[in-house]
Amino acid sequence: QVQLVESGGGLVQSGGSLRLSCATSGIIFSFYEMAWHRQAPGKQRELVASITTRGITNYASSVKGRFTISRDNAKNTAFLQMNSLKPEDTAVYYCYAQHRTLSARAYWGQGTQVTVSS
C-alpha cells in the first residue's frame, strides 16, 4: 500500500553529479519528515540528509556543502542533489519517511545504487 520508490542512481566519475528522486504513494506526504540514508558494503547504514515538514534540513558532516535535500509536496516526492561526488560516496541510497508525530509510521524504499569511480 505504502510505496517509496527511488530513482536516479548510477555510475559517475569523481567530481560529477547525480540527482536522486523518491516518489511516494499511500501516505499524506506533507505530514512526513523525509530523509536519505546510505549503506556501503560491510558498513552500517548512515543518515545522509533529512528535511522536516517545515523544510528544515540536516546533513551528515561528510556531505555538507556538496549534497542538497529538497521536497516537492505537490508531487509527493523528495530529492537528493549530489555534487562533487567522491568514491567514498559509493553506496546504496535509501529513501525514508517518518510521520512528524506518529513516529511508528515510518517507511523505507528499496534503494538505488550510486557508484563513483576514481
Notes on the structure:
With 118 residues, this protein is mainly beta. The chain is built from no helices and eleven strands.
Percent in strands: over 45%
Q: pLDDT below 50 for ≥5 consecutive residues: which ranges?
A: none
Structural class: mainly beta
Distance between the termini: 40 Å
Gyration radius from CA atoms, angstroms? 14 Å
Q: Characterize the overall form.
A: globular
Total helical segments: 0
**DSSP summary, beta strand count:** 11
The quaternary state of the protein chains shown equals single chain
Largest sheet: 7 strands, mixed
The percentage helix is under 10%
What is the string of helix and strand elements?
EEEEEEEEEEE
Mean pLDDT across every amino acid position? 98
Task: Write the SSE topology.
Elements: E1 3-7, E2 10-13, E3 18-25, E4 32-39, E5 46-51, E6 57-59, E7 67-72, E8 77-82, E9 91-99, E10 106-108, E11 112-117
Parallel strand pairs: 2-11
Antiparallel strand pairs: 1-3, 3-8, 4-5, 4-9, 5-6, 7-8, 9-10, 9-11
